[in-house]
Amino acid sequence: MYDDNPTIQHLVKTIDPMRQGEVLDYKAQSGADNGKRFYIESFGCQMNFSDSEIVAAVLHEAGYRSTLRMEEADLILVNTCSIREKAEDTVRKRLYVYNKVKKSKPGTLIGVLGCMAERMKRQLLEEEKLVDLVVGPDAYRDMPKLLDSAEEGHRAINVQLSREETYADISPVRLQSNGVTAFISIMRGCDNMCSFCVVPFTRGRERSRDPYSIIAETRDLYDNGYREVTLLGQNVDSYNWVHPETQETVTFARLLRMCAGVHPEMRIRFSTSHPKDMTDEVLYAMAEMDNICNYIHLPVQSGNNRILELMRRGYTREWYMERIEAIRRIIPDCAISSDIIAGFCTETEADHRETLDIIRRANFSMSYMFYYSERPNTFAQRNLQDNVPLEVKKRRLTEIIQLQNTLSLEHNKKDIGRQFEVLIEGDSKKSKAEFKGRNSQNKMVVFPKIPGLRPGDYVHVEITEASSATLRGHIIQNSAL
Ligand code: SAH
Ligand code: SF4
Ligand code: F3S
After folding, report:
1. What per-residue confidence (pLDDT) applies to 479?
2. Ordered domains of the chain (ranges, CATH)
3. Cα 449 to averaged position of ligand 1 atoms, centre (Å)
């Protein structure tokens, strides 16, 4: 499953904008059709997928409509990621593919959006002349203007970062939606400056979105049949909104309670939590409200204190384990997942063994695992030596993946015989006779259909089989019939 770098496997997906017409156009945008079509692909994290939905809304408003076929597009867009070198390599390859299409249809515009646009700026326009339009993550409102100028033959660019932009007033056009689950961005940017990470440079300063616009979006989704939202931020625990006039303050714990209050049948998830900032207050909100899912993604990165310090993560191994214990104490049935980086600057075999050890102790239900990829202008690139040889990084990564797979399997096997409430998301990948959905712990559950049920319904499933990635079972009772 994981070849060279596992990232690409789980992070890279392609959006299917055509489905818009089926289930997602619930907020049909007002702009009159200008006859032009856009095609968009997204790479990177959930934030980027969520941003593509903002871009789609801005373009709809300007009269553009989406197409699934690159060949018929007047505008080909790619929303990009810079987190690791491979993520950027993937995008570069795609640019050549788009340019082939452009050759047979001159006049087609090619635009690079997102983190790579922000990191590389003008360089993207100049290098090899593959791109007509470069738009950073805080400049999407400017796209209609930039497109006008690109159509006149000028190379258009806006990579201005903002301290305020949260796109709070834009109703996203849901792309590739299953009509049941959706992402909501609650904040943008990151103020943390972990030494390996490019995000603070590509996304700018942290800012929190108006909670009332988040609640309105959640309610609107509920009214349109959605039953789960994932609140997105690089560090959701530092969400902090202050009303400009009344000084009313909303913390993440309060926001969670407000969102969960929209409807008991609307599930709330969130990502990503930061170990240095996750408070017990958030855990108590999760424990008290049934519709806040029992699942926390709490990236540890490394199990060694010296490496954590070099990474500038702001916590120690002991602090991290105390947070894990707090989760287990306050929410006994909570699954915890993680991100791990193998082979960071100066990492020794002993340091690596401490990472394996903390994975075992924390007993993650799953992890996203990477080997270190040096990124331009980060603290690590400027001050530390990327001195772990590639073969060693890869071998350590393999050991981490093997351990995690074993733990995930053990974790899932313990679920055999248990019953879970599952929200049906759609047909399983393999068979139209089966549904798939997730339990509160974010585990994928597959089970045979019974008539009368449909995506968006909650069912109770008894687990009979488990692999490291999926649970299988059968419905024992359902609330919809
Ligand atoms: N805001 C989140 C992470 C966002 S990036 C957090 O702080 O946890 C997602 C993951 O990519 C990170 O958790 C980290 O494990 C990985 N990552 C980031 N920069 C990387 C780099 N230069 N090389 C390898 N992995 C990296
Ligand atoms: Fe990057 Fe650290 Fe911010 Fe996460 S918290 S986005 S790893 S700087
Ligand atoms: Fe990638 Fe940017 Fe997300 S660098 S991981 S797309 S914030």
Report:
1. 54
2. 2-158 (3.40.50.12160), 181-413 (3.80.30.20), 419-478 (2.40.50.140)
3. 38
For the full predicted model, state whether its pTM sits above 0.85: yes
CB proximity list for 26: less than 8 A, separation 6 or greater: 174, 224
Q: Identify the residue whose tokens are 């033959």.
A: 153
Q: Which tokens is 144 given?
A: 């209609």
- Centroid of ligand 3 to alpha carbon of 82 (angstroms): 6
What is residue 153's three-state secondary structure? Answer: coil
Give the whole-angstrom CA distance, residue 189 versus residue 362: 28
Q: Tell me the DSSP string of 339-391.
A: EEEES-TT--HHHHHHHHHHHHHHT-SEEEEEE----TTSHHHHHS---S-HH
Residue 199 near ligand 3, beta carbon < 6 Å: yes
212: left (phi over 0), alpha (psi -120 to 50) or beta: alpha
**pLDDT tens digits, one per residue of 438-452:** 999 999 999 999 999
- Residue 44 Cβ inside 6 Å of ligand 3? The answer reads yes
Q: Separation of 312 CA from ligand 1 center, angstroms?
A: 12
**Secondary element (H or E) of residue 259:** helix 252-260
- Give the distance (Å) from ligand 2 centre to CA of residue 367: 16
Distances in whole angstroms, Cα of residue 392 to Cα of each of 8, 302, 370, 387: 20, 16, 13, 10
Parallel/antiparallel/unpaired status of strands 228-232 and 267-271: parallel
- Sheet containing 65-66: which strands, arranged edge to edge? 65-66, 37-42, 75-80, 109-114, 133-135, 156-158
* Nearest-CA residue for atom 5 of ligand 2: 192
Query: Does 123 have pLDDT greater than 50?
Result: yes
Q: Measured from the CB, is residue 82 less than 6 Å from ligand 3?
A: yes
Tell me the best of 370, 371, 372 to mutate to test the pocket of ligand 1, counting ligand atoms within 8 Å of each CB and taking the most. Answer: 370
